[in-house]
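Thought: the user wants the 3D structure for the chain below. I'll pass the sequence to the structure tool as-is, report back what it returns, then summarize two notable features.
Action: structure_tool
Action Input:
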Amino acid sequence: MKRTKQKSCAMEMAGKPTRYEQALINIYSQTKMNDRHAMNKMRNVHTHALI
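Observation:
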């Protein structure tokens, strides 16, 4: 009985993302963008240092 209940709950979670999940996705995408931006900054600084 417990297994079927867990399965249905998991299906509901997958069907529509909860606010918590959406917040996590937003934070994840933001950090990814920030990382890319930071990497570009580092690269620019590095090239200037070489020259």
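Final Answer: Structure generated. Helices lie at 2-15, 19-50. The chain has one domain: 2-50.
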